[in-house]
Specification:
Elements (H helix, E strand, L loop, with lengths): L9 E3 L2 E6 L5 E2 L5 E4 L4 E6 L4 E8 L12 E6 L5 E5 L4 E5 L4 E6 L7 E7 L2 E6 L7 E6 L4 E7 L12 E7 L3 E6 L6 E5 L3
Antiparallel strand pairs: 1-2, 3-4, 4-5, 5-6, 7-8, 8-9, 9-10, 11-12, 12-13, 13-14, 15-16, 16-17
Length: about 190
């Protein structure tokens, strides 16, 4: 049976019954779990001691929306840097050793980073509104630049309107993922650079 560790979510302004809950977490190279909680603050959980620590680091957000900042996607690079994707559509890099967060900006002028995956010095991401078209992007971790891609299409070359749940990278430049719509489809992307 499960055991509640600690409540880290807060309520959003003017929505006292609606909790702000991040949709993901990341396992750092230090074997600690990182996620975001109330007002977009980063929380660190040590699974061995069960200690939860609120860090003095916040997710980037649109000015005035700090209380709504939530974590939607995360991935960890070979050097231990954690990349976060937020509901407001920002990408940020976080160094767990120094507790430094760097706002890298928004790949799209819209909300929601749906999923992120790291491989070959790039962050491959899917972004977009939950009821819109998911679009892909790449963040080059060496050059520090974004490449904006297009929409996702199925095998019949039709647009896919369902949000992406998660992605994982396997060898041979293949990314596997799942859509969260009513059909619950799986997909594979063969990435060529």
């Amino acid at each position: 049976p499960g055991k509640e560790i600690q409540t880290i979510a807060g309520t959003r302004p003017f929505e006292k019954s609606s909790y702000q809950v991040s949709r993901t977490f990341a396992m750092g190279r230090d074997n600690c779990i990182y996620t975001a909680g109330k007002d977009g603050y980063i929380f660190k959980l040590n699974p061995e001691t069960m200690e939860v620590k609120k860090l003095n680091v916040r997710l980037p957000s649109v000015k005035g929306r700090e209380a709504w900042a939530s974590l939607d996607a995360a991935t960890v690079t070979d050097d231990g840097t954690i990349y976060f994707g937020t509901f407001d559509g920002y990408i940020a890099s976080f160094n767990p050793k120094s507790n430094v967060m760097k706002n890298l900006g928004k790949p799209f002028r819209q909300q929601r980073i749906q999923a992120l995956v790291y491989f070959n010095n790039i962050i491959f991401g899917i972004g977009g509104e939950p009821d819109g078209l998911p679009r892909w992007f790449i963040y080059d971790t060496i050059a520090g630049t974004f490449e904006i891609g297009g929409t996702l299409k199925n095998t019949e070359n039709k647009l896919i309107y369902e949000p992406v749940n998660s992605m994982i990278y396997l060898e041979n430049n293949k990314i596997y993922g799942s859509f969260s719509g009513r059909l619950g489809s799986l997909f594979v992307i063969q990435y060529e650079r």
